[in-house]
Amino acid sequence: MIEVFKYSLKDMVRNRWIFLYTGFFLLVTISLLALSNDLIKVTISMSNIVLILTPLVGLLFGTMYSYNSREFIDLLLAQPLSRISVYSGIYLGLAISLILSVVLGIGVPMAFYGIFTSEALIPFLVLFSMAIVLSIIFSLIAFLIATRFENKLKGFGLAIFVWLFFAVIYDGIFLLVLMWFKEYPLEKLTIGLTLFNPIDLARILILLKLDVSAMMGYTGAVLQKYLGSGLGILTIITSLAMWIIIPALMLKRILYKKDF
């Protein structure tokens, strides 16, 4: 697995799309820092970009890389190597390269502008952590999709739909449910539905640390009230961890049953 990981990582860091991804974050971060010296405002602006872009890139790039690596994967599986080792090594190469893009594109400019000595340090670290977690979650879902569906068109279509669902459609359905049942106590329902969307979980955790409840809407207000404590934050972190564990177990099951 380590040898496959090394090869995959070397291949990824030479990929032009990774350079473009890193360059985009660098450009946006430096531009926001040039426009404002308030690191809290820059963190808030970056959170809006990170919560949309990292899931999208994780899904599309992960799906594309998985399909493009299929012949290489088949060659490796013809050797006395386990399926888990091969896929784990390739996935880790992808995930680490996406994480490095976030580190270089966001972390380096913010560190240069003194984020580690400012009052925005905690919100920034939460934002930084959520960017990494979302990259891991959605690139893992991308591998799951590409492994499950042989047809590239179907795989890319499903990857785009997954991003649209979690980034846009889910919140619309959520809002409709709250409107339809507004006469009933919805606190538990709101908390429960939020746990099924990793983007919402990341957004709520960031906004809780930014202490800008006015931007949170109904969902954030409920979480501020009921889950703003240490137990609430632990619940969110546990839910995000489950978004990594469950797709990983599903991918493992598919790999054992799949006929290569």
Tell me about this structure.
- The radius of gyration is 19 Å and the shape is globular.
- 83% of the residues lie in helices and 0% in strands.
- The longest helix has 30 residues, at 39-68.
- It contains 11 helices and no strands.
- The chain starts with a helix and ends with a helix.
- Helix 1 crosses helix 5 (83-112).
- The mean pLDDT is 84.
- The chain has one domain (2-257).
- It has 260 residues and is mostly helical.
Q: How do you describe this structure in short?
A:
The protein is mainly alpha-helical and 260 residues long.
Number of domains: 1
- The share of residues in helices is over 70%
Outline type: globular
Q: Return the average pLDDT rounded to an integer.
A: 84
Terminal CA distance reads 18 Å
Spell out the helices and strands N to C.
HHHHHHHHHHH
Low-confidence regions:
none
Radius of gyration: 19 Å
Question: How big a fraction of the residues is strand?
Answer: under 5%
The computed structural class is mainly alpha
Biggest sheet details = none
How many helices? The count is 11
- What is the count of β-strands? 0
Topology of this protein?
Elements: H1 2-13, H2 16-35, H3 39-68, H4 70-77, H5 83-112, H6 121-148, H7 152-180, H8 187-194, H9 198-210, H10 217-226, H11 230-257
Sum up the structure in keywords.
260 residues; 11 helices; mainly alpha
